[in-house]
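Sequence, structure tokens reproduced for absentees:
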Amino acid sequence: MSRHQSPSRRRRRLVFVSHNPVWGGSEELWSAAAAELAECGHEVVAVTFPAFHDALPIKRLKAAGGRVHALYEWLSALGNSRLMRFLAGRIQPGLLRLRLATLPRPDLVVISQGTNFGAHQLANVCAALGLPYALITQKAQEAVWVPDTVLDSVRRAYAGAAWSYFVSRHNLRLTEEQLGQSLRPKASVVCNPFLTSWDAPLTWPEEAGAYRLACIGRLYPFDKGQDLLLRVLAAPKWQARPLAVTLYGEGTYRQGLEGMARHLGLASVRFAGFATDVDAVWASHHGLVLPSRAEGLPLVLVEAMLRGRFPIVTDVAGNAEVVTDDQTGFVAAAATEAALDEALERAWVRRAEWRTMGQAAAASIRTLVPKNPAAVFGDELLRLLDADSQTKGGVPL
């Protein structure tokens, strides 16, 4: 997207809404795109959970003149508790209706949802108000289906969207299957932004002492599968090999996973907490291991490949869309202990090739994702508005 307001493109008014109560990778795309659009002179408002307001992309949005509103400030005192999530899910639609009523009419409302049906009520609020909206879906999984009780509402939400964006082809296809309806041609795949440099030269850590893999992600085994990895690493053959694994991330299951690692006697596994410096992680680790049960397309996978690190991933969601098995990384056939062990074994046998495979991964990922995904997505939203204006007979923008 141009960094300057084009004379032929008038100023647009966009509202970004996130239904998620906790900041995570699913918040990076909409927030960065909102900041990009504000910096290009468009009028941007974000409606989010209050805890988001200290995040760097939100601060960038404010610095560019964007406005940020909270849906339910009084709930922030409950933190990320079950009560907070229960209440938020039930009062969000009404609060969004009230919030939108206080704002100037937007040209487009962009709703970001962590799952493929989490924000259907928010979308239907926009439809009831006659506001055009687009949906961003960050995750879909085979094990979680849309309940019949809300299926019609979810179908209406997608059918009424000006466009639906997904972060992997898998997530788009699976959502169509679960809804029993086609979303195309008004649906496409977009890329999430990453938190590492595109242009920085590739480096490689020392290999003395041990080979080191990083497992990066929220400590949430239901999706991220860290328990699978710990069980595999408990096998005698892995215990005897000079392989160390660092788990980065926080979550409500950290103590349980740490206890599991101690119980299994995994002296070569450590928990390092949340990583604020992505490049520092890759300065000391040779590869990425992701035992995921569910994903969209992991930011950490793209970041690892950009930094010249080979990945070991499970064949879920968009992982195999960017990793070529045995060429730019290793793909476990399923999110099971046996499949993960098999992929790790193949990687271990070829450990002398890890650096060259990482270089191949770095070259490959740069052909699959744009240098500035947030700017590209911002441009997509403006083109969507341009096309809508032309369809309605408006002045070409």
